[in-house]
Automatic annotation (TrEMBL):
Location, primary (coarse class): cytoplasm
Keywords: Coiled coil, Cytoplasm, Phosphoprotein
SMART domains hit by this protein: Grip
Protein name: GRIP domain-containing protein
Pfam families in alphabetical order: GRIP
Region (Disordered): 560-590
InterPro entries assigned to the protein according to its UniProt record, in alphabetical order: GRIP_dom, MT-Golgi_org_protein
Localization of this protein: Cytoplasm
Entry's Gene Ontology cellular component terms: cytoplasm
Biased composition (Basic and acidic residues): 578-590
Organism: Daphnia pulex (Water flea)
Coiled-coil blocks: 179-327, 353-387, 413-486, 640-670
Domain annotation GRIP: ranges: 673-720
Length: 763
């Protein structure tokens, strides 16, 4: 105790309380509680020693009282004997009585010396007890002082924690206010920036459009004259080119149809390959799930086998307990028979002592009668002597008669003395027999008490062992049932999870099959639509000669010189040329963001127009449309990436703010529960001191409500409990081996007890 206390004091002196963490404080509190428990145990042991010493003192006092009573009885007997000796003038037995007195004095001196030695031992024990008590009191006072200091330090730390929490709350509130103000400022700046951007875009687009219109007008004025001359020359060339382009268009259409057919085939092949891959993956998942189910079934079988083995062990332990109970019953019956026989023997001895007492009483009555006769004889003798003195002249006859009477008196006196000696011898024999019988009775009583004590100790030990074995069996049964329930729950969970996975896989498979069917239907519809387009195109090819004649007439009209007032055709041509140049310039200049986002409808319309008029499509328009689409895609992908990054950053900030708000709410809720510190202390001490199991898991919701634990912390505790349960399952095998060893030990002890009882019965 002192060494452990010094160690704890040295550890406590090394580190101040303010530098310690909460875990170290809890560890120190645990150490102090362990020291307090040790002090309580030491105090209980000292109290037990005190009670045992007090019992010993009481027994010694009772023995001293009994010795005093025996001395008194001996002194009374001695006085009676002395009176009888004085009355009967039996001087021959005085020496024997003196020797007996000396022996009894020696015995009393020995008993007094023993009693003094016992008193000295008692005094030494009392002094040792007082010293130990003083030492324990000092240690307890020190412990109380240390605990008071720790309590004061804990209160200081709690006050500091409260102040820190208040400061943290104030800081969080200020921080939240600053964050709100910053967000407002950011929103205002964003609104202003968007407004400025729109204004700048509008200004830039207006200035650019004006400059471009001026340049376009100049270019148009410069190029009108050149184009009139060039158009006349190009009209003939265009006719030839139209014929060539028609042939090229036909070839390209044929190539497109072939490429579309190949694309459909490749798409169908890829879909079939993807379906096959998905089916293979689903099959592999099903195989893995089936393997896991088989593994779980094997594990369940192993667990059931272990449970059956444990049940067999429990049955064996029950059989051993029944055998131990039978042996205990036999021992109890044997001990009861021994007790009855001893009681009968004691009753017989008591009857013998009563008979001896009756004989002693009769002899004492005879002695009293003899003493009365002796006194009467004395009185007669004195009366006779007085008569002899009064008569001065005795006659011869009277003298002879007196001599005869004196002789008869002497003879009678001798006879009486012999009778008295015989009676004294009988009394001595009876007293010796009484002492022997009393010693035998005391020996029998001691043996009976000793046998009763041994029997009670054996019965208590066996009962304790039985209780321990039953408690261990109950604990094993509970653990076994808990393990079975846990395994059943795990099996059900795994089965439900596997069923859900299989259902999800089936649903995915069905969805994929439906998607593939829809794709096939769409492919069929596209093929039908393409066939219709090809048939319409062929019909247009049949109508194309008529259109060619109309074109030739138009070319001739262009070649004719214009008269005055004929400017409509020129205006239309110029409008078309200007529109083409405007479209070229629009394609070349950068497109703003709003127009890019809103240009989807226009692009779709152009695509529809192109599909409606495949004859007017050219390679440049294809390249320009592709460039526009690529630019728009890049722009949109950049915008999407920026928006996703902003969303991710904002979601992270929102999560962080939510977590801080939750922490602040939990801290506020903790302050409500901090007022009841005594209850919280008791709950924490129970959680720390209780063994790991159901009782400790029941305290988890209480701690979550009091300390407002987060779900992450609760999950961490549950994971730790699961790992501990797994380690406990590993310890079950060790417990079974220990139970077997305990059963062997109990069997050996029962055999030894039966041997001891048989020996005692034979003795």
């Amino acid at each position: 105790m002192e060494e452990s206390f010094e160690k704890t004091n040295n550890v406590n002196k090394k580190l101040p309380l303010e530098e310690l963490d909460r875990d170290e404080l809890l560890k120190r509190c645990k150490s102090y509680l362990a020291l307090a428990q040790r002090a309580k145990q030491a105090r209980d042991e000292v109290q037990q020693r005190e009670t045992s010493l007090l019992d010993k003192i009481s027994t010694l006092e009772s023995q001293i009282i009994q010795l005093g009573i025996q001395e008194k009885t001996c002194s009374n007997n001695e006085e009676e004997h002395l009176e009888s000796i004085e009355d009967l003038s039996l001087t021959s037995n005085v020496s024997d009585l003196v020797l007996q007195l000396k022996l009894k004095d020696e015995e009393t001196n020995l008993l007094l010396s023993k009693s003094e030695a016992m008193q000295a031992q008692l005094k030494t024990l009392e002094e040792n007890y007082e010293q130990q008590k003083d030492g324990f009191v000092e240690e307890l006072n020190k412990m109380n002082d240390v605990l008071k200091q720790r309590g004061e330090a804990i209160t200081r730390l709690e006050y500091k924690c409260q102040t820190n929490e208040k400061e943290f709350k104030a800081k969080t509130e200020t921080f939240l206010q600053l964050v709100a103000e910053r967000e407002r400022k950011i929103e205002q700046l964003e609104s202003e920036s968007s407004r400025f951007e729109t204004q700048s875009e509008v200004m830039s687009t207006s200035t650019v459009s004006k400059v471009e219109e001026i340049h376009r007008m100049k270019d148009v004025e410069d190029s009108l004259e050149d184009r009139y001359n060039k158009l006349k020359m190009l009209a003939v060339k265009m006719k030839r080119k139209i014929a060539e382009q028609n042939t090229q268009l036909q070839e390209k259409d044929n190539q497109l149809t072939l490429l579309k057919a190949e694309d459909k085939k490749t798409h169908i092949r890829n879909n079939s390959l993807n379906l096959q891959m998905n089916l293979d993956a689903v099959q592999l998942e099903l195989d893995s799930i089936q393997n896991e189910l088989q593994q779980q079934r094997t594990e369940i079988r192993h667990v059931t086998a272990k449970a059956e083995s444990k049940e067999n062990e429990v049955d064996n332990l029950k059989l051993q307990l029944s055998t131990v109970n039978a042996e205990l019953h036999k021992l109890q019956t044997g001990s009861s028979l021994l007790i009855e026989t001893l009681r009968k023997h004691v009753a017989a001895l008591e009857e013998a002592t009563a008979a001896e007492k009756m004989a002693k009483d009769s002899l004492q009555s005879e002695l009293s009668e003899l003493r009365a006769e002796y006194e009467n004889y004395k009185i007669r003798a004195t009366s006779v002597l007085k008569k002899q003195k009064t008569e001065a002249q005795p006659s011869a006859t009277s003298s002879k008669e007196a001599a005869d009477d004196f002789n008869t008196d002497q003879v009678e006196r001798e006879m009486l003395q012999r009778v008295v000696e015989a009676l004294k011898g009988k009394i001595a024999e009876l007293e010796s027999q009484l002492a022997h019988s009393q010693s035998e009775v005391s020996n029998f009583r001691v043996e009976r008490e000793r046998t009763a004590a041994t029997q009670s100790s054996i019965v208590e030990a066996m009962q304790n062992r039985l209780e321990r074995a039953e408690s261990e069996m109950e604990v094993i049964k509970r653990e076994h049932q808990a393990q079975i329930s846990r395994l059943q729950g795990d099996n059900q969970l795994l089965a439900s999870l596997h069923r859900e996975q299989i259902d999800g896989i089936k649903l995915r498979h069905a969805q994929e099959i439906l998607e593939l069917q829809n794709n096939l239907d769409e492919v069929g519809l596209e093929s039908a639509r393409l066939q219709k387009i090809i048939s319409s195109y062929q019909a247009q090819r049949t109508v194309s000669p008529l259109t060619k004649a109309g074109d030739l007439r138009r070319d001739e009209a262009f070649m004719i010189e214009r008269e005055r007032g004929e400017g409509s055709e020129d205006g239309s041509v110029t409008r078309r040329s200007t529109q083409r140049e405007d479209s070229d310039n629009d394609a070349r200049k950068p497109i703003p963001l709003e127009l890019l986002l809103n240009s989807q409808l226009a692009s779709e319309e152009t695509v529809v127009f192109q599909t409606e008029r495949p004859e007017t499509i050219s390679f440049e328009q294809y390249s320009e449309s592709l460039a526009l689409v690529e630019k728009r895609c890049n722009h949109l992908s950049a915008l999407l990436a920026e928006s996703e990054a902003n969303e991710a950053r904002l979601s992270q900030l929102a999560d962080a703010l939510k977590e801080e708000i939750r922490r602040s709410e939990r801290s506020e809720e903790r302050q409500k529960h901090i007022e009841n510190l005594e209850y919280l202390k008791n709950v924490v001490l129970k959680f720390v001191t209780l063994p790991r199991g159901e009782e400790r898991s029941r305290l988890v919701p209480v701690l979550t409500t009091l300390l407002r634990l987060s779900p992450v912390e609760v999950q961490e505790y549950q994971c730790a409990m699961k790992t501990e349960l797994e380690t406990n399952h590993a310890l079950l095998s060790l417990l079974s081996s220990k139970m077997a060893l305990k059963a062997d030990i109990v069997h050996g002890v029962s055999v030894k007890l039966s041997m001891c009882m048989s020996k005692s019965s034979a003795g």
